[in-house]
Amino acid sequence: MNSKDLKTIRELLRVGRKIVIVPHKNPDGDAMGSCLALKHYLTALGHQAVVITPNDYPRFLKWMPGNQEALNFEKEEEKARALLEDAELIFTLDFNHLSRSGAMEAPLREARASFIMVDHHREPGDYALVTMSDSSMSSTCEMVYNLIEGLDGLDNIDPDMANCLYAGIVTDTGSFKFSATTSRTHRVAADLIDRGAKNTEIHNKIFDTNTPERLQLLGCALRNLIILKEFNTAYISLRQEELDACHYKKGDTEGFVNYGLTLEGIRFAVIFIENRDEGIIKISFRSEGNFSVNEFARTHFGGGGHLNAAGGRSHDSMEATIAHFESLLGTYREALTK
Ligand code: 5GP
Ligand code: MN
After folding, report:
1. Which structural domains are found in the chain, ordered by start?
2. Burial of 138 (0-12, 13-18, 19+ CB in 10 A)
3. Summary mean pLDDT of the chain
4. Ligand 1 pocket, CB under 6 A
């Protein structure tokens, strides 16, 4: 971690501050875990810190200590806007372009506060006074742990914080199996267990919370799986009617895209999910090896992310989106097959 950034943050935190902490839209375990852990840390230091999420998040994250006090911008917009206007410092965690904060983008742009970005996605924007950006990191939670260590605060990590940080690491590493998982990641996780993270409970709460409807939806997704062997590619589509038939709730499709990658030889897996309310097809991209889904999502579907995990969207119909996607594969034949 850059010592100049640390020094700036130390200076900014020297006196009690009004602080807002923001995750990306549709926050996942890493986004919520890092925000809530940082909130606990800053509150213990005497700051007034509040987490504002752009929208709701899945029920399997609602056990996280402190999540009841987080504001949902969609539901409490007036209060959230007042806090953003009043803030002296705004931490943006687990994203690196303000557009990733959905409806919060405009109020964030108008805010007078200094911004601190802590994030592990590629190609960061330049809106922050302090940009802590490292795409080699497993998770934003590992970076928040490093930040706290840099501020000599490790002994302030209580069990609530440890649980939040561990949950984020587990989420973004796919339970320590994705390639950004390092020996350091395991050491951080081990230290978090020593500081009170209940590792088995966390895994159960995040991954073993299926409902019958979600399993039905998984069945539907797997029936819709298309394998394009000549491109080592597999994709799944879920239409709004299919989601409705299985009483879709936020978070229910989490992890579905990964099934494509479990097929032998498949290097590129995609899921297309219709969202009629927003008038978009939300797309998740995953890859194995060097094929950059970050670049693919950025170039063709207005998105981005990491080398092996990225997202994007299309404003076309499902049919047109899939046809466009298939038409692109020829250009990537070599990268996908060599
Ligand atoms: P997911 O497919 O699970 O939604 O996202 C995979 C990764 O890509 C996550 O790290 C997420 O933050 C990032 N991501 C998802 N959608 C977008 C997007 O529209 N734009 C950018 N820049 N990143 C995204
Ligand atoms: Mn993350």
Report:
1. 3-207 (3.90.1640.10), 212-337 (3.10.310.30)
2. buried
3. 98
4. 24, 100, 121, 284, 303-306, 309-312
